[in-house]
Recover the amino acids of this structure.
């Protein structure tokens, strides 16, 4: 399977989808699903291969390269799978909306661009695909118009700054090594000075960090995630922002090299420590923000920021255990967060666009399957044992404790408790509690929505019970980074300092469940009662009002809210204000008189001549 | 007290368990409520007998109706009684629930509580002292032993009649019948 | 032998937990100058609950409580009980920390399904309180794990064998004190009894449980009491060489909890969280810093 063909299918599929949309929407939907499925199959067939092709020989003296390695395969696989499921999910979600052809085509384009990013073998193609990705993402975020446009604008401006930083880094690298191919850059980096590496790292770090929405570049993410169409939010949160993670992995392990990276600032404040502290802040602060949200998607968006912190924390330690934990957490987060966004999408679809956590409730009675998958997703998010999130978080915690960083471990573990708070709020306010009268005859989710959610929830459990499957892939990535391989078994890890064995946990939990279930069965007869037959001090249940969901954590919110100001966001907004003011100031010089412009030119030339005469720099 | 007789436990464990863990609903209607605090606190210590107040009817199996029942309260009483899990026992406390007592001609209270829910035992008096509650409890034990505290069975059997009585005072009830089939039959 | 302990340890835990429940009611009664119920009163009540008719509020209502109880049972398998630990090699303290989360989560799910706002209020209080005591608790646990450089509970216990308790090894003194300060909150005793507050929110999460479900909740209560106390004994009081000594140590800890319980009124949840995030956290934090800076 050649990589060019893959990219052609991906990009061409997107274009053709738009064209087919003009003919018939049915045809277009089928085609979109087909293309995304084909991509999954094609990426899957690349497993274990190491290809390297240059698809454009002479671009300014460089050849543009596509290549696949273990790392890029994992990212490509996740991206294409999520893309496919999201397209399937969109089939019902987007029904009856306008500009659907545009939507599908953009969805496939984002998908293609992500594949391009992870498959490109030199920095220039990476940059090109990165830009395609950013642009098409912007178009999709602002798809709904109104507030979505503002959110998209925020995203666009921030990611534009990131792109500029990346471009600067790119030019610097090209200037000093004369090549942009990963291999060549890595070879050049071996002899580079630490200051230079730091500069490169910061430039690329800004780009990747903005995409990954780590603190302090997170400001674009919450509005963008909540305003985008739900199936796209799934992609956005699941995989697209993880392109930043890919970037970090690329720059740390492939370009700069682990040894160089760990040596940066080793005598003063080591860079990897800075990165892990940034990761810790990224966990802590957004977790509390998520607890205070009332919009289901905003809650999930903040949670995405927080989980990205775990990934960064894992990567920054640079041991085989921690990198495995970070990469595995990326996969897991992609799975369960996409699942949860789809759940919100389903609820939104059935309730005609309601995602306000204060006005839903009791939907478990109407959508049991959606609740079940949401529960599985939430369990993965919290990291309940026997779901995938547990294994990756376990790896990260264990690293933190073994590396003797108890304060970071504290943040990570405490963040998990925060996660419980907001994810229970999410579950409770949507699915539990009293079912409002107006949702009495809500229908179940349609088939095309249930299918992707079920697939994802199966993956959550599968990776949790048999962590050996993904971990062996990740282990090979670890080895390709030059790290010590882990001792992976199908059921977990066999290591010298405290092993993990999911089969024991599984057996114990199942035995426990069985025993308790039998005890419950042996008890007296049970009758099921309606929600109208609840205890209300003998009074009749007030319909629609007997529900505690508004201000679910009000006491806690009252306590912490004064300390939790998103000051980065307000900083950016103020910055935007200044830039706007500056812009209108500058606009004053465009007076519209030709004479004025002529005077500007003359003045400019005079200044040049003056400079040349006094300092003679040219 | 026969709690310590092992043979009884072996013969009828269920009955014994029900006898010695009577949890009373926190539901206080009339003047009699004033007698409850001394009963459950240090002066009389009902917990010795396993009698403690429960916060919701779902946890309880003893319903003490402590005094007059106004029409408005009756609705809550019925509701609470129906929410208690079976087997459940009710005790009318004071003259008012028995026959109206000093409120016999009130426009707003009901006179005979056992027309609306089944009562297993009565404590007469206006108002009875806490000791009377203990007498009632021990009496209830005997009734349970002899299978005579069967109010909940009577309720099920004559539900149609009870419901009719309830609807007579309260008008149309806003909750569906507790036992669907019995009502039809 | 190991299989036998796998079966026995939950049963022992249940017996001990129920004994503790009975004992605490008795002790409380004596403190109130009452006579109190017999020690086996919880057993009578559980038996009564199981022979009563239960009212179910949906599938998740039963499933949640089953999940919660199963979680507690699994935690017990991971905890050393006086030299006996049935599941020592499967993930250590981190798994215990995570498994301890199943119990509140299960109750929360099933209580939420009951659609009673009292239950929801209780759950939200429980989660906030847990967030409150989890901060100092994690500090303590991390101090201990860093000090002994292991994540396995069995190793922590055996490392304390020389000094008899973590209190005796200098840097952990502060962690031990902080643990004592948060113990009532972890056991859900007054002044932190905000979750079940019967007079206020009708028993909170368990407002809608009846019959067998309530029986399971009571068993669950017994097991969580056991877990809370035995975790304390294992982490900072050196565990014990044999179950009997372990049991005696647990009794002492319970007595401490009961006296606090009897002496205090109930706090509001903000006050509770504020307290937990102030003194115990500060002490535990200083303790962790000591551990990190002083090393072993
Ligand atoms: S019986 Fe007497 S004390 Fe009791 S409610 Fe009636 S009037 Fe009051």
């Amino acid at each position: 399977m050649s990589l060019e063909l893959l990219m052609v299918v991906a990009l061409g599929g997107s274009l053709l989808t738009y064209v087919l949309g003009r003919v018939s929407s049915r045809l277009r939907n089928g085609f979109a699903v087909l293309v995304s499925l084909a991509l999954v199959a094609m990426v899957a067939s690349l497993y274990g291969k190491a290809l390297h092709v240059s698809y454009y020989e002479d671009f300014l003296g460089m050849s543009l390269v596509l290549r696949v390695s273990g790392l890029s395969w994992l990212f490509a696989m996740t991206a294409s799978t999520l893309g496919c499921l999201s397209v399937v999910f969109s089939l019902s979600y987007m029904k009856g909306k306008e500009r659907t052809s545009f939507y599908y085509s953009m969805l496939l384009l984002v998908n293609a661009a992500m594949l391009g990013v992870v498959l490109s073998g030199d920095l220039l193609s990476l940059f090109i695909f990165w830009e395609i990705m950013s642009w098409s993402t912007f178009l999709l975020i602002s798809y709904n118009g109104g507030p979505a446009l503002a959110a998209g604008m925020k995203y666009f401006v921030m990611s534009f700054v990131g792109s500029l930083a990346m471009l600067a880094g790119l030019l610097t690298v090209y200037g000093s090594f004369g090549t942009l191919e990963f291999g060549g850059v890595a070879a050049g980096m071996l002899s580079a000075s630490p200051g230079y590496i730091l500069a490169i790292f910061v430039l690329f770090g800004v780009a990747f960090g903005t995409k990954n929405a780590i603190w302090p570049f997170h400001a674009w993410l919450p509005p963008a995630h909540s305003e985008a169409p739900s199936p796209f939010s799934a992609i956005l949160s699941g995989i697209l922002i993880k392109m930043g993670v890919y970037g970090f992995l690329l720059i740390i392990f492939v370009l700069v090299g682990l040894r160089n990276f760990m040596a940066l600032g080793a005598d003063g404040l080591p860079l990897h420590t800075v990165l892990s502290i940034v990761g810790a802040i990224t966990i802590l602060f957004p977790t509390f923000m998520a607890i205070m949200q009332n919009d289901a998607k905003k809650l999930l968006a903040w949670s995405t920021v927080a989980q990205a912190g775990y990934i960064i924390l894992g990567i920054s330690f640079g041991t085989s255990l921690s990198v495995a934990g970070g990469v595995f957490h990326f996969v897991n987060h992609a799975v369960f967060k996409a699942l949860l966004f789809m759940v919100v999408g389903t609820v939104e679809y059935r309730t005609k666009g309601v995602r306000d956590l204060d006005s839903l409730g009791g939907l478990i009675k109407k959508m049991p399957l959606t609740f079940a998958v949401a529960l599985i997703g939430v369990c993965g998010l919290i990291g309940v044992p026997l779901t995938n999130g547990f294994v990756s978080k376990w790896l990260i915690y264990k690293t933190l404790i073994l590396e003797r960083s108890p304060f970071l471990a504290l943040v990570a573990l405490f963040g998990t408790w925060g996660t419980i708070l907001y994810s229970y709020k999410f579950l409770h306010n949507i699915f539990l509690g009293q079912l409002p009268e107006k949702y009495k005859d809500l229908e179940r989710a349609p088939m095309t929505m249930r299918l992707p959610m079920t697939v994802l929830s199966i993956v959550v459990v599968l990776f949790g019970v048999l962590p050996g499957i993904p971990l062996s892939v990740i282990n090979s990535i670890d080895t390709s980074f030059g790290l010590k391989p882990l001792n992976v078994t199908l059921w977990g890890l066999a290591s010298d300092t405290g092993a993990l064995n999911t089969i024991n946990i599984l057996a114990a939990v199942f035995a426990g469940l069985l025993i308790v279930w039998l005890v419950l069965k042996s008890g007296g007869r049970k009758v099921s009662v309606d929600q109208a037959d609840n205890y209300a001090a003998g009074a009749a249940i007030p319909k629609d009002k007997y529900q505690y969901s508004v201000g679910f954590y009000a006491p806690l919110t009252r306590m912490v809210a004064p300390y939790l100001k998103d000051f980065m966001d307000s900083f950016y907004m103020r910055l935007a204000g200044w830039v706007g003011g500056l812009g209108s100031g500058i606009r004053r010089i465009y007076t519209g008189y030709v004479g004025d412009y002529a005077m500007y030119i003359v003045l400019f030339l005079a200044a040049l001549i003056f400079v040349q005469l006094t300092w003679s720099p040219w | 007290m026969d709690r310590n007789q092992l043979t009884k436990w072996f013969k009828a464990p269920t009955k014994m368990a029900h006898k010695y863990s009577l949890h009373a609903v926190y539901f206080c209607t009339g003047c009699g409520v004033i007698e409850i605090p001394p009963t459950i606190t240090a002066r009389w210590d009902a917990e010795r007998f396993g009698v403690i107040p429960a916060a919701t009817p779902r946890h309880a199996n003893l319903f003490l109706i402590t005094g007059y029942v106004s029409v408005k309260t009756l609705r809550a009483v019925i509701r609470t009684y129906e929410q208690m899990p079976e087997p459940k026992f009710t005790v009318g406390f004071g003259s008012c629930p028995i026959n109206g007592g000093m409120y016999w001609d009130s426009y707003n209270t009901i006179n005979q509580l056992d027309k609306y829910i089944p009562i297993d035992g009565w404590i007469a008096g206006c108002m009875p002292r806490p000791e009377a509650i203990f007498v009632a409890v021990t009496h209830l034990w005997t009734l349970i032993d002899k299978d005579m505290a069967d109010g909940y069975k009577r309720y099920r059997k004559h539900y149609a009649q009870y419901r009719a009585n309830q609807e007579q005072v309260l008008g149309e009830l806003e909750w569906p019948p507790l036992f669907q089939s019995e009502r039809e039959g | 032998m190991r299989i036998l302990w796998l079966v026995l340890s939950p049963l022992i835990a249940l017996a001990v937990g129920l004994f503790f429940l009975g004992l605490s009611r008795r002790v409380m009664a004596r403190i109130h100058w009452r006579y109190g119920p017999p020690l086996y009163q919880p057993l009578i009540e559980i038996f009564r609950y199981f022979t009563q008719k239960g009212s179910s509020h949906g599938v998740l209502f039963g499933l949640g409580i089953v999940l919660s109880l199963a979680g507690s049972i699994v935690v017990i398998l991971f905890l050393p009980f006086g030299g006996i630990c049935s599941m020592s090699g499967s993930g250590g303290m981190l798994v215990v920390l995570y498994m301890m989360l199943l119990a509140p989560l299960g109750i929360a799910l099933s209580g939420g399904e009951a659609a009673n706002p009292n239950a929801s209020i209780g759950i939200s209080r429980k989660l906030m309180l847990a967030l409150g005591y989890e901060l100092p608790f994690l500090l303590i646990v991390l101090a201990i794990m860093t000090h002994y450089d292991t994540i396995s509970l069995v190793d922590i216990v055996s490392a304390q064998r020389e000094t008899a308790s973590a209190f005796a090894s200098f840097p952990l003194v502060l962690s031990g004190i902080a643990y004592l300060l948060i113990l009532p909150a972890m056991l859900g005793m007054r002044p932190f009894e905000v979750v079940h507050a019967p007079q206020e929110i009708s028993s909170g999460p368990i407002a809608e449980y009846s019959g067998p479900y309530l029986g399971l909740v009571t068993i669950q209560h017994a097991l969580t009491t056991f877990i809370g106390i035995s975790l304390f004994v294992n982490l900072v009081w050196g565990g014990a060489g044999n179950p009997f000594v372990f049991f005696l140590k647990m009794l002492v800890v319970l007595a401490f909890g009961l006296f606090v319980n009897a002496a205090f009124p109930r706090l509001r949840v903000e006050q509770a969280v504020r307290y937990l995030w102030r003194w115990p956290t500060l002490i535990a934090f200083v303790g962790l810093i000591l551990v990190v800076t002083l090393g072993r």
Summary: Chain C touches chain B at residues 25, 29, 32-38, 41, 44-45, 47-48, 51-55, 118, 198-199, 202-203, 206-211, 214 (CB under 8 Å). The radius of gyration of chain C is 19 Å. Chain C has a mean pLDDT of 83.
